[in-house]
Amino acid sequence: MKLITDAFEGDRLIGFFLIKDLQQKIAANGSEYFDLVLGDSSGTISAKLWDITDEHKETYAVKKIAKVDGIVTLFRNQKQLQIQRIRLSLPEDDIEIQSLVQKSDVSREELWQELRMFLEEIYSPTLNKLVKTILISKETRDALTTLPAGMKMHHAYYAGLLEHIVTLMQSAMQLFPIYPQLNKDLVLATCLLHDIGKTKELSDPISPEYTTEGELVGHIVLGIELINEAAREVGIPSHDEELLALKHCILSHHGDVDLGFGSAISGKLPEAIFFHYLDQIDAKLNAMKMSFKGNSEEWVYSPMLKRKIRNLNRE
Amino acid sequence: MKLITDAFEGDRLIGFFLIKDLQQKIAANGSEYFDLVLGDSSGTISAKLWDITDEHKETYAVKKIAKVDGIVTLFRNQKQLQIQRIRLSLPEDDIEIQSLVQKSDVSREELWQELRMFLEEIYSPTLNKLVKTILISKETRDALTTLPAGMKMHHAYYAGLLEHIVTLMQSAMQLFPIYPQLNKDLVLATCLLHDIGKTKELSDPISPEYTTEGELVGHIVLGIELINEAAREVGIPSHDEELLALKHCILSHHGDVDLGFGSAISGKLPEAIFFHYLDQIDAKLNAMKMSFKGNSEEWVYSPMLKRKIRNLNRE
Amino acid sequence: MKLITDAFEGDRLIGFFLIKDLQQKIAANGSEYFDLVLGDSSGTISAKLWDITDEHKETYAVKKIAKVDGIVTLFRNQKQLQIQRIRLSLPEDDIEIQSLVQKSDVSREELWQELRMFLEEIYSPTLNKLVKTILISKETRDALTTLPAGMKMHHAYYAGLLEHIVTLMQSAMQLFPIYPQLNKDLVLATCLLHDIGKTKELSDPISPEYTTEGELVGHIVLGIELINEAAREVGIPSHDEELLALKHCILSHHGDVDLGFGSAISGKLPEAIFFHYLDQIDAKLNAMKMSFKGNSEEWVYSPMLKRKIRNLNRE
Amino acid sequence: MKLITDAFEGDRLIGFFLIKDLQQKIAANGSEYFDLVLGDSSGTISAKLWDITDEHKETYAVKKIAKVDGIVTLFRNQKQLQIQRIRLSLPEDDIEIQSLVQKSDVSREELWQELRMFLEEIYSPTLNKLVKTILISKETRDALTTLPAGMKMHHAYYAGLLEHIVTLMQSAMQLFPIYPQLNKDLVLATCLLHDIGKTKELSDPISPEYTTEGELVGHIVLGIELINEAAREVGIPSHDEELLALKHCILSHHGDVDLGFGSAISGKLPEAIFFHYLDQIDAKLNAMKMSFKGNSEEWVYSPMLKRKIRNLNRE
Amino acid sequence: MKLITDAFEGDRLIGFFLIKDLQQKIAANGSEYFDLVLGDSSGTISAKLWDITDEHKETYAVKKIAKVDGIVTLFRNQKQLQIQRIRLSLPEDDIEIQSLVQKSDVSREELWQELRMFLEEIYSPTLNKLVKTILISKETRDALTTLPAGMKMHHAYYAGLLEHIVTLMQSAMQLFPIYPQLNKDLVLATCLLHDIGKTKELSDPISPEYTTEGELVGHIVLGIELINEAAREVGIPSHDEELLALKHCILSHHGDVDLGFGSAISGKLPEAIFFHYLDQIDAKLNAMKMSFKGNSEEWVYSPMLKRKIRNLNRE
Amino acid sequence: MKLITDAFEGDRLIGFFLIKDLQQKIAANGSEYFDLVLGDSSGTISAKLWDITDEHKETYAVKKIAKVDGIVTLFRNQKQLQIQRIRLSLPEDDIEIQSLVQKSDVSREELWQELRMFLEEIYSPTLNKLVKTILISKETRDALTTLPAGMKMHHAYYAGLLEHIVTLMQSAMQLFPIYPQLNKDLVLATCLLHDIGKTKELSDPISPEYTTEGELVGHIVLGIELINEAAREVGIPSHDEELLALKHCILSHHGDVDLGFGSAISGKLPEAIFFHYLDQIDAKLNAMKMSFKGNSEEWVYSPMLKRKIRNLNRE
User: Does C265 contact D238 at a Cβ distance shorter than 8 Å?
Assistant: First the structure.
């Protein structure tokens, strides 16, 4: 079965897809149609289903799985699927939603093992205990290991957040020998927990939306709250120097306050400054990689950088 | 005894003063001197004590009270006291530090009574309980009712924070009939708690300095932490709509995130938008009033506005 | 007859509407259609009339009243009326344009009475005379009491400017006891006259456009010109302190110059600073209220704030 | 008699100077001294008079003329005069204040003749009449032909404003053949009147200060007021297209509103855009020329550009 | 044959046009169409060709010439051609691509003659030799005399860059008598070479695209490279003062670095400051002129200024 | 012999120091003194020599070595040396200037060896050849291995630039396994050459000043010029993809153009984005480390970050 990123203009695409977005619209001739976003494990494609009926409207919805047969066309340089036949998947099709979701290259299990290994590199009893306490919660652990790192910008796929965290920990480990002045425990704990608030900001990993908490409090402060709860649980006093330093690194990880990207405080520790740039590297390189993926053009538009970027390594 | 704000160029000033700042310096001729800031209940004045000895160095320090005799001169349009005689205050002088600190015009007791009265206007059981729980702590209450609202910019005097809070509550109460769409309980709780984190950010009311927590976490998030603790104590669940709304108003009270003034989230509730501007009015009008105070000039420099401002009402 | 804000997806809407905008377009199938904005006393709705003829083109135009029968659909989460039948209103329909225009909640007459009452609170002979002289002109008075406060952002409805002014005066009156240092006469005159230049900037209250003066001079300076004319008429000298202060408050009411929002000078009087924020509160709270109106969603997009805002009070 | 700009480190400087600034200060050893700015026709120099007496304090003041004998030293790379002898000028010295003021290279009379000649190039009866009406006022004419163009930045010398205006008119005349689409009359009238409000913003040409009007209204709007008065006097209606265009060019001459340099409206006419840049060229080239003057260094600090600039043409 | 700028709503337009852009799209009814931009010597128009076939897709492409018959309609206030008949131009039509390209008002030959004349005004042997060496290259000369000055903003037509350069030289020559402190040779060489890098940044004059060099290096630094090559060729040492000054003027010609418009260094020479504003005048006045062209409206939207501008001189 | 960073308030400091800055000033009592900056291998200290004579003025100058005896005092929280005895160093003192210059912790020789080793990791023949060609020049190599990376901000000591480069190469090597999409050769060459223009921007390693080229062209473009020369020398064509990519990484290494930090182009390659942040990490961590050095305070002011930073690791 051909995957979305392998299908090009003129190809016929038949298979099962997850409905990731569905908008009911009226064409200029007055007839109604669906404007859809379909997904499989390789990526997403926008699609049109023309001349829909009431039955269509009742049958299809976001998060349902459909079997689709259509032709790939180009619309404003984007691939678009013109659906010719569609039906809902049946129990006998035996399709699991998990198989239709874009994931990181490394398996979630491997990433999780790696994260656990890095955990053992946090020697500070305080920080080690704190991190483990947070990860003991099944709810947090499940969210942390399945959510994307964000809605659109970078690591925007199943378990993207976990991949982002593990990559940051790897990078940090690699750079510690070069910057021995850094407090290794503090940096690793920051890598692991900097976006922990996203487990409360985003609703679910398949088609995430912002929660009320996410909109009103934001993931940075939601993360601080999770940390405070864990600290209290294991008896770390609120004035503990390491706890304060960890919270500082998280509160400042969007860069200087006056840049207006949402840090609550400007970085005042080498670890905070270091982590901010490490996070930028990982977010932007991932965003660029995803923009290049399945794209054979020399120049590709990057939504994150808001400019065209160049793919030196395309085959 | 003449007060600082009543003394002008050429006047002799004799009295007891609190040493608010003391720097030991070397004059161009190699001799040592003190560069001081002295305070009484009316304000502060910079002062010089020339040709100091080792005894001077051992005797005088910040927060001590000294009896001083000197002449007021002008230096770059600022009053400066040339000290001619100085001694530490003695027990028999019977001078209390409280009597040498600048305070708001209204007494701390009256402000506190007024605050308690406004508390009864918070009818929401959740918010009422939350606020009262926070104020039950003697430590918090003492800090809240003695600290300045800030180091320099506005309400920078003993109990300035309390005055700021009470004034905001008064203003809000006055405007509720005009904007009935506002949730009164939410706005009043925001007035009361928006700067509650300053009770942990600033060290003490007489000569406040930033605490480690203040530098690393900042008063906005410190305030959220105090609120979370109180909520947990009285069993308000973390998803409670009113609790989230209150935290939102506090997290956004420095204005839109992209302005870069340190809000962690941009205001998304009418109450948040309303409170931000109310806070700006009170902060800036107080700063201008303090700049005008004891100044007979038509135009006065305002450190908060960074420009000259005009005193229409000087006598 | 159902009103626009009471009609939801799937409803049939029959009634008289004011044509507020009309664009002739060509559909992708080559046929022509009207893209309309229709209004009644409750608000506006976009509408489509498909397959139009030359007769349609000659018959319908902006500011005409039409009887319309159609079905409400949703297009990109906005309501859209699919017109099925349409005709111009006839004399025997006895529909007045006034009845199809969105207005403030309080009647224009009541607002005008209130404004006149506040006028008597301006005790300064100079400012009182000045304001009254400006309001004596029937042309100015008519414009001031019928225009919206702006094209789109806030109080964008019939007599919205008058409602904005009266609300500001009410707010100011409520806050005077709290900020006794403010010159009450100056603030009230500023409330009344701060947007007086809009009477020359906007062409008419029903479907306002910018005048040439409005585009080239702007309402702030047009307002200063109206004030200067009135001052000359009643013999207030151009150096009069109160006149200068009033002009200063108006010239600075868009905030500090370096923010780039069009103030000609940065505020240097407490009254100017105070008024700027008061104006912001009223503009933004009104804009949010209008965004919430007739919208049952929890989160609503606010064009003024350029973000989603939350409606705590929806039923 | 040696002029200020001809005196270098180590030189003795004897002559008559205008006291342009005088501050009484206290040295670190407790003795009092004057910190002065002295001026002659070539420029200004800072000066110190040590160990002053009460007689000194009563004798010397800003705008007085003094005969001074001193040695030029260098302080932070700036020339500074160490005064050894000083006395007030006497009637028999026969020194006129005019001879001690820095002026433009071209005489005020010649500049005035040139301005009058350009006036005849304004063929539009409306604009011609308007400009002449403004110049008929002796008060305005005197101010316009003696004031500096600003306090510090550019053309900051006697009749600098006149020189600035005439240079702009010359430049505009030179460029008209190249940009024939420009309305010549409009541009010339803008050159002449763009800073006319400075005649009310600045107090006097010898040691100018901001007037109350200048601080509260600003020279841009003060200029509009002068133009409106003249228009009314000669019966130009307020809706006159040329009058509106002229006011637009003046209101927008500080560049786009969102740059925050104080334009009340952004330029919407080619003449407005053209004039803004012409004004920038003249202001900045004059500022750089004045920074180079009397300075033999290769690199000179420019207060206007806030960076070091290079003098290619120094001898 | 009617030209594009002379055709208005409802007109029939028949003639030969250059296909400047061609996008294949799918209409809401599923049929395919071309979205085209057609050009002739007067300007460009967007056009639609409905219901295209495979033959259409194979026949038409960018840079081909087509004979078209269609009706002008209005779509969102922009003219749009509804194509009814179309065919490729045939050899016997004898249409040259040159005749279908928008050009400057003055002929390329005249502009070139004028440029050569100005060259003789560069008396500095170094700069004269440098400029001539660059212009000796046929490739550079051809590009310089045919390219637009930019893709869209200003002088965006055949030989627009040459016209821009010559106009700048004319303007500079006119202003030299007024600013004698300017180094004339340096300014003229800057006019000529400031955009010389565009000869490598843009691919071709008819339908220019950015080259890889253009995207990765940018025209400013590409220009510096061309100058360095020429300097080496004729033996001008890299430390030559005039060479450095020329490079400085080019590197700073987008204004101060901190404005973020791409200057590599902020202007530190009067010639650099002067040239920056001269360039701004010519770019913006040209952009406004092109926006007005063939537009009979009083107010026209300017893409360069991002606001509506006013045409005082329309007939 | 005690080093500067080991001397605290009250200590006597005797030894040889390099005069890094010398300003002649006049004290408030009229006597002359030297305001000096003295340096040894551990850092710098400001110093005063009171009551200087003509002999002093003739004897001492920047870059001379003096033997000094003085007492360390505190002035505004900065250490300051009060010189009691001073003489120039004599040949028999046998003091080399090299021994009095602050250096990186790793020896210049080791750094150079490491750089050479990394060179061998650049496998691309083009980039390898290019880099080696540049390093063959003894002048460039000497400058590259002795200069500071900047005047003040980071790595501001002898061979600081070399240390900065080598550290960047180490960091990059460590991160390559994590970001395999990066072109390793391109990143390493960028590390090595990104600041190569500083070899022409700064005059000498001991007391560096900006050269004329540095001021007028800036180190980014000076670096591009060096690269172009080397490319020509070894016959790499100007359109070579790797050459263009390298130049792009260097031209964009100050971040996005619109931030206004002097990049000539915004980063469009993953390598460019990656390098920019890597460079930020190294610059800022080094600046913070140098601010902490020899400072026992908990909070230290960082000139680079313009805020107080916290030293978690002080002993």
Answer: no
- E120 Cβ neighbours under 8 A, 6+ residues apart: none
From C74, C54, C277, C246, select the one nearest C172 (Cα to Cα): C277
Query: Does the beta-carbon distance from B273 to C266 stay under 8 Å?
Result: no
Give the C-alpha separation, E98 to E86, whole Å.
20
Torsion, Cα of B261, B262, B264, B270 (10° steps): -40
* Confidence (pLDDT) at D28: 57
The Cα of D149 is separated from the nearest Cα of chain C by a number of Å equal to 19
* F174: Cβ contacts below 8 Å, ≥ 6 apart: A174, A175, A177, A178
pLDDT at F167 over 80: yes
Q: What ipTM did this prediction achieve?
A: 0.88
Positions in chain A short of pLDDT 50:
315
Amino acid at B190: T
Residue A200's pLDDT is 95
Main-chain phi, psi angles of B269, to 5 degrees: -120, 145
Residue A259 with chain B: CB contacts under 8 Å: 260
Residue C36 three-state SS: strand
CA distance B183 to B4: 45
- Rounded CA gap, F154 and F138, in Å? 25
> What is the overall mean pLDDT for chain F?
91
What pLDDT was estimated at residue C309?
94
pLDDT tens column, F215-258: 999 999 999 999 999 999 999 999 999 999 999 999 999 999 99
pLDDT < 50 positions in chain D: 315
- Cα separation of B20 and B63, whole Å? 6
pLDDT score recorded for residue C42: 84
pLDDT for position D306: 93
For C33-78, how does the pLDDT look when each residue is reduced to its tens digit (9 = 90+)?
898 989 888 888 899 998 888 899 889 988 899 999 998 887 766 7
- CB under 8 A, 24+ apart: contacts of D310-313: D310/E268, D310/E269, D310/F215, D310/F216, D312/E183, D312/E186, D312/E241, D312/E245, D312/E269, D312/E271, D313/E181, D313/E183
- β-bridge pairing D32-40 and D43-49: antiparallel
The tokens describing B116, both together, are 């308690």
A28-52 burial code (b ≥16 CB/10 A, e <16) = bbeebbbebbbbbbbbbbebbbbeb
User: In the beta sheet, which residues pair with residue C66?
Assistant: C17, C88
Give the integer Cα–Cα distance in Å for D10 and D70. Answer: 10
Chain A CA closest to residue B255 = A260
Q: Residue D197, SS3?
A: coil
State the pLDDT at residue B127. 97
- D315/D187 Cα distance (integer angstroms): 37
- Tell me the domains of chain F and their CATH numbers: 4-99 (2.40.50.140), 103-291 (no CATH)
User: Taking CB atoms and an 8 Å limit, are F29 and D29 in contact across chains?
Assistant: yes
Distance CA(C97)–CA(C206), nearest Å, equals 9
Q: Residue B84's Cα: distance from chain center in Å? A: 32
Q: Give the per-residue pLDDT at F126.
A: 97
Residue carrying structure tokens 């970001």: F179
Q: Which of F71, F72, F74 to mutate to test the interface with B (most CBs of B within 10 A)?
A: F74
Cα(E56)–Cα(E74) distance, rounded to whole angstroms? 25
Task: Identify the chains in contact with B, defined as 3+ C-beta pairs within 8 A.
Answer: A, C, D, F
**CB within 8 Å: D29 and F26:** no
Name, in order, each residue with C-beta under 8 angstroms of A139's C-beta and a sequence gap of 6 or more. A199
User: What pLDDT is stored for residue C116 in this prediction?
Assistant: 94
Q: How far apart are CA C45 and CA E288, in angstroms?
A: 36
Q: Tell me, what amino acid is at A297?
A: E
